[in-house]
Every structure is written in C-alpha cells, then in structure tokens.
Here is the input.
Amino acid sequence: MRNRVIFSLAILGVLAGLLAAYIFGIQRKPQPPVFKPTGSPYPTAIFANGIIESDQTSGSNINVYPEVSGRVTAVLVKEGQTVAAGAALLRIDDSVQKQTTAQLRSQAEAAQALLQELRAQPRKETLDIATAQVVLAEANVKAARDQYDKDRAAYDADPHSISKSVLDVAADALQQTVTALEVARRQYDLTKAGAWRYDIDSQQKTYEALLQSYESADALLSKYTVTAGSDGVVLAVNAVPNGYVSSQGAYDTYTQGQDPILVLGPPQGYLAVRCFVDEILVARLPDGLHIRAQMSVRGSDVKVPLEFVRVQPYISPKIELSDERQEQVDLRVLPVIFRFRKQGAPVYPGQEVDVYIGQK
Here is the structure.
C-alpha cells in the first residue's frame, strides 16, 4: 500500500513538471507600448529638457506676493480663471489700517480748517470789537481832557479854588487815556493785519505733513486688496480664507517653505518652453535663423513643433531646472526659449517636456 502511494505521487510529480514545462515554454507576444518611444525627428539634433511656462517677455510666470501681512479675509478668484488688469484677487484684513487712515484724515482736515481760519483773518466780529475799543479809548481821552481843562482853568483863575494835587491827578488821567488810545489803535492795526505770515506758513507745513501721512496710509490701505497687474490667467492659488500671508508669501506645510500667494500667467493662447541645453552641446546649437525644434510630451504621442524666440545669453547651473540647491556635479546649461500655440494640447505651465533641436 505504501509503495502504491509513493508511485502515485511520483507519477503526479512527473505530470506536473511536464505541464509546467509546457506552460512556461509558450511564446507570448509582447504587449504593444502605451505610446511610441520618443525619438529625434531630425537627422542630427540636440536633446534638451524643457519646462513649459507662460509666454511673455520674461518668459516666467508672475508670482504674486502681498506688500503687507495679515489674515486673508477673502480669495476672489479660482485657478484657471481669466482676470483683467486691476481686478481684485485677494483681500487681507485691513480693519486696523482703515481706522489709522481715518484718524490721519481727520487730523489733516482739522489742520486744513485751522489754516483756512488763519487765512480768513481778520474776522469781522473781531475787527468790530477792536474798532469799538478805539472809539471807547477816544471817548475816554475826550472826557479826561475836558476834566483836565476845567481843572486847569479853575486853577489858573484862582490857585486856591482847587489843590495842585487834583490838577496833577487830572493830568495823569489824561496821559493814561492817551496811552490807552494808542494801545487800542495798535491793537486795531494788529487785528486788521490778520494772521502773521509765519503762523500761516507753519500751519501750511503742518497741514501738508498730515495730508502726506494720510495719503501714505490710504495708499497702504489699498495694498490690503491684491490686484492683477495685467490681463492673464490664474495658474495657482496658495492662500486660503483665514490663513496668514506675509510679504514672503504663504507657508506651505508640505514643502515647509514660502510659496507665492498667487501665480498668474498671460492668456494661454500661446505657451513658452524654456529648454536647457547642456554646456558641452552649446557649440552644436544652430544660430537663431536656422533653428527648428519639436517638443514631445512625456507619457504620450503628442509632438508639437516649436517656434524659436531667443537664447538667454547666460549659462546657469542646472538647479534652475531641477530646483535642487545642492548638486553633486556642477552641471551648467544654456536656456533657449521657444513658443507654441496651445490649441488644446494637454500641456500646462510647469510641465517637463523633451525637446529636440535641429537645423533647417
């Protein structure tokens, strides 16, 4: 019985081995590639890595940073939205700055009112009082002179009719009223002349200083609303309501760095491709009149002809492409800028592509 079991197991092992040999010996057809591998469309060409970016003079996207810090109260745009120049993009809490601006405005208005008051002098009512004081002083002089003349006449007629001291008191009273009249007339002239020129100039400078402070505060208040500097498309929004932003941007917890609060690009009819040609291949780069190039989108069969724009005449480290601050090898590249019409191509700014540069 035991030998029969061993013999049966041996037969099953042989059959299993034959079956396995047959299965693994079958020739399987290779699966077709998902997309055709990238290849050069030109007989001789230079290969370069490229990054798609906005098509504008600088060739770069517009990174928006606020000029003030604070809590975000509203994000007014969304990614992919087309915006016009001057359109509000984001608002930052401006409650404190708004009150500061209002206070400085009130101070400037108060200084202006005081300046107008100085320029409007003399006030009619004040001049009327000064005139009345002159008239009163003249009346006092007339009364004092009449009294002195009477006393003098009596003394001259009979020195024993009044004492010499009474005559002297009358003379002193007349002199005092004459002096008081002179003071009243001078006070009238001072009042009629109005405010002193130096007081007006000082108040003018005070008003101008406060007005400039108000205008500065008002200009700063406008910075709490971030606006678009030109027509374009919102490519990225890195700020959220109730989040904190500063002049360095918004903190990204993933990268643990500061990102621009918004990234804008021009209208997406055209896009640019910034290629990075290895410095050892720069000598093989054709001149601008004879350059032709084609872009291949990685992971697809999309191939787009490119239009040469310019060469950025500065060879820079590869960190511009890799964004690595510590390179093991100091590899340097020459940026070459191309552009193309998007026309529905599945590409976006920031995407890496392969570029082949040939000669016409």
